[in-house]
Amino acid sequence: MNLYTHFGEQLTGVLEALREQGVLPLDADFSRITVEPPRDPSHGDIATNAAMVLAKMAKMPPRDLAKKITELLLQLDDVKKAEIAGPGFINISITALFWQKILIAAFDNEGLYGRSQLGQGQKINVEFVSANPTGPMHVGHVRGAVFGDALANLLDFTGFDVSREYYINDAGAQVDVLARSAYLRYLEALGEEIGDIPEGLYPGDYLKAVGADLAEKHGDEFKGQEESQWLETIRDFAIDAMMDQIRGDLKTLNITFDQFFSERSLKEGDVNMVAQSIEDLRDKGLIYEGTLPPPKGKLPDDWEDREQTLFRATDFGDDVDRALAKADGSHTYFASDIAYHRDKYMRGFTSMIDVLGADHSGYIKRMKAAVKALSDGEAELDVKICQLVKLLRGGKPVKMGKRLGTFITLREVVDEVGSDVVRFIMLYRKNDASLDFDFYKVQEQSKDNPVFYVQYAHARVHSVLYRKIPLEMPDLDIADIDPLSEDLSLLVDSGEVALVKRLAQYPRIIEQAAKAHEPHRVAFYLYELAADLHMQWSRGTEKPELRFISDGNKKVTGARAVLLLAIAKTLASGLGILGVHPIEEMR
RNA sequence: GGUCCCGUAGCUCAGUUGGAUAGAGCACCAGAUUCCUAAUCUGGGGGUCACUGGUUCGAAUCCAGUCGGGAUCACCA
Fold first, then answer.
1. Domain boundary at A251, A285, A311, which?
2. Is ipTM over 0.85?
3. Nucleotide nearest residue A359, measured CA to C1'
4. pTM for the structure as a whole
């Protein structure tokens, strides 16, 4: 139950009544009305700007209109107070009974609290990671992987039909380089002296195993052969091996995909989908042969003013038209990507999200343009950019160099700090802001570390419910706690009320995070919920009567147990969206 | 030079898609532990929301421009 949409509906009922009375015109527009928590809690529980927004249409001063609205609001069962404030805000306080209803909703055993039908089962495609299959995943891929996975969780939680996809770039020049690199390792496995790996090939040790496997499978079949004899076989073998490795790497972060989509499959099926996509756009008059103006400023050294096949991206908001064919006649990466997104569209996805690294921000406009064009405006693409992660160790930057082979792999990061820590930290920042990841700080067990802080809150609750209550109040069986039979009106302390109110925010936060495609909002919410819990806990040290286990008072303890269970469930629910385990005890 | 992102407390960042007196953590200062984990909590100081205009009942938020930082800039992926 979302408190604000609930009262939004109630308010709409009131406004419709006023429209019937002729106070509001028949065509009154309610769309700009908001129903929100006021920033200052002393203003009540819910604030609406309805009177200010509608004042002009009603041709009366905001405060006068507010008076008419509040009179009707006060007749509603769940409204305790409705007051006019400032220029015409209406502040609503709701009844204690209604807060109890919310607590009961939050207690829900099926994990339904916070779920919504926002997505209405709409299909949505989330493409993320899509790292080149030329080596193990390195630390640069981690953020996008975690972000995409959490976003997919969030959308699933809010009623979308989500597909997680990984686009395998297995058609470009880079996989040929991979094949040549693997071929060298293959020769090495056959006992040849290969010396240093030449510049331009992949030097990593991870290809040694691929070479050995090739040698075992093919013997010396390819030894001394022309490249054309072995390239394809070895390339396919190496790509499969790399994808296995990548899948394994992602598994350490509990990330799986619904679909791995091969770029090559677009070109090698019965019909060349890339060519067909271009023809499709050509039929729409969006393709032409022409020349591009050279980029302003410094001219590239090898600039060549030639005619090329261009997509009219400028018709859809891009800055220049974009090339679809290279000088040698083959398709550009962009052309393949158009075909891929067209494939998504034809599979029924009118809503797509691409999660990309910061270095691809220049790619956004053309891809959005392409999706609009190929779907005749029916499909929507949102591109989420994940900014760089700065790796630190005790405040000092971790030095990495691909050439030196000192880049840090995803697996090394997860092995050192654990999946939960990696995931939470990566999500505790807005995706388009850069992020510091300090190996030492993220493992610190102190309140400076948000992962720990939230985990600790969950463990604390668990400790009271399942360790202390059985000891101190053995006749209260937590497993049998039923919010409907406990007297929730006993939760009157300000800290308890604050916790219930915080729980009430959860559905709204989830919905906003899902709409904005911003899972970090969930992480920040969990931090606040944890803070409220720790605060209430500490108040119990000063005032023993506020402790969750109320000495000898089974009724009060029972009511507080309902609150604690609701908190634990909400923490677990939110952490679940982030893909972080709610731990039950600290070690 | 074009485009995109960012600019909020000394530092790291939130800011409910336009609401009321702009928030949290760190750091700094002052406190709390015979107690369910003090692995925590309480209080305090600290701001020209980069700047200038505009839109309106109302702007950190939207628009235009300026300044500063980052990414990117035919054909690579």
1. A251
2. yes
3. B71
4. 0.95
